[in-house]
């Protein structure tokens, strides 16, 4: 274990070099594959079906267009990646960090500062020498109720309290994010930048949201359709929001009605509520189905296609790539590329996973 990793394991942050590149510029923030495929190819079963008919483009604020080349967009931010030590998390973290460093080395990455994998498993793992890591404790046994994501806000609380973070801003990220371009700082001073998710709909659950965001605080529309990631936010603001986020997450999980309604996105709703309780709305940059203006690929959904390149969402395709197929091991090297007709975003994702796996040592061992 190198000195930085030992330091991280003992409670101090390990840092990446001070040059980085990655995420969004003036066009797009993130791709969620099958969501966009459903929007543009037609409706179907599955999580994406509810998005049919919705306009997926959120207008870019005028100030952001005007400031496209300004110094304000080059203020450095620290990438904080929350993760577990499970094999499923490890291989995604390795791909993510590989491309973070590649984007960091390109022109335009001036805003990307340090990088920390915030490991909430309570002990060092096999990636300590490869990825700058800060080890924090998981919630007490049983407190997460089998919902491992509940450890994320608690991890941020600990990291913010104990680590030395030089940058003024933080990008909260997840293992299934792949950087495809350098990312400028899209936060506008005290206004965070966040990605709007079509399946986070506070206004449709007002009776539940009001348990945590009372009427005297304002309309339910103050609760943005976001999660904690990807979000670029001022560190001083996150230090105030994180404890609220943690407490609201636990309260939601322990409330049977809320838990049943929000399910696997409960922690995302908790962050949205915590942000609103702190009086913060989030700037929502536009996103795009093509890679021309896209800076992060978020491979949250399975990608299933026929050999004719037709989407078969909800049905295992003749060609598929689904991160959930690799729960206990990394994907094999040199994955077969998608057939002709599959969207550029999916082809790019597979090529990027292949490049990372070809260049990372001991890939097949899973570390």
TrEMBL record:
The Hydroxyproline O-arabinosyltransferase-like domain, residue ranges: 77-364
Compartments reported by the entry: Membrane
Domain of life: Eukaryota
Keyword annotations: Glycosyltransferase, Membrane, Transferase, Transmembrane, Transmembrane helix
UniProt main location, coarse: membrane
Gene Ontology CC: one annotated term: membrane
Molecular function as annotated in GO: glycosyltransferase activity
Topology within the bilayer: Single-pass membrane protein
InterPro entries from the UniProt entry: HPAT-like (IPR056508), HPAT/SRGT1-like (IPR044845)
Protein name per UniProt: Hydroxyproline O-arabinosyltransferase-like domain-containing protein
Originating species: Eragrostis curvula (weeping love grass)
């Amino acid at each position: 274990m190198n000195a930085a990793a030992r330091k991280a394991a003992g409670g101090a942050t390990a840092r990446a070099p001070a040059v980085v590149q990655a995420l969004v510029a003036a066009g797009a923030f993130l791709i969620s594959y099958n969501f966009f495929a459903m929007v543009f190819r037609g409706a179907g079963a599955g999580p994406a079906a509810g998005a049919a008919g919705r306009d997926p483009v959120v207008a870019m604020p005028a100030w952001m267009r005007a400031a496209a080349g300004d110094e304000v967009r080059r203020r450095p931010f620290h990438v904080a990646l929350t993760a577990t030590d499970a094999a499923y998390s490890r291989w995604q973290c390795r791909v993510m960090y590989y491309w973070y460093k590649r984007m960091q080395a390109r022109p335009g990455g001036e805003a990307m500062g340090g990088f920390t994998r915030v490991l909430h498993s309570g002990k060092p793992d096999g990636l300590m020498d490869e990825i700058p890591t800060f080890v924090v404790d998981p919630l007490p046994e049983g407190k997460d109720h089998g919902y491992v994501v509940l450890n994320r806000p608690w991890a941020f609380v600990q990291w913010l309290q104990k680590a030395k973070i030089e940058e003024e801003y933080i990008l909260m990220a997840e293992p299934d994010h792949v950087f495809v371009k350098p990312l400028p700082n899209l936060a506008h001073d005290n206004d965070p930048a966040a990605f709007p998710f079509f399946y986070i709909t506070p206004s449709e659950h007002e009776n539940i949201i009001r348990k945590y965001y009372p009427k005297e605080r304002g309309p339910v529309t103050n609760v943005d359709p976001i999660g904690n990631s990807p979000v670029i936010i001022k560190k001083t603001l996150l230090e105030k929001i994180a404890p609220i986020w943690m407490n609201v997450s636990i309260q939601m999980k322990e409330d049977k009605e809320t838990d049943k309604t929000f399910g696997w996105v409960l922690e995302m709703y908790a962050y949205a509520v915590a942000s609103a309780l702190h009086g913060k709305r989030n700037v929502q940059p536009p996103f795009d189905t093509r890679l021309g203006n896209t800076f992060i690929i978020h491979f949250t959904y399975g990608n299933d296609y026929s050999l004719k390149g037709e989407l078969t969402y909800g049905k295992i395709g003749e060609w598929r790539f689904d991160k959930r197929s690799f729960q206990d091991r990394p994907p094999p090297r040199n994955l077969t590329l998608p057939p002709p007709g599959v969207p550029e975003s999916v082809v790019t994702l597979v090529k990027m996973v292949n490049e990372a796996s070809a260049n990372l040592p001991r890939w097949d061992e899973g570390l």
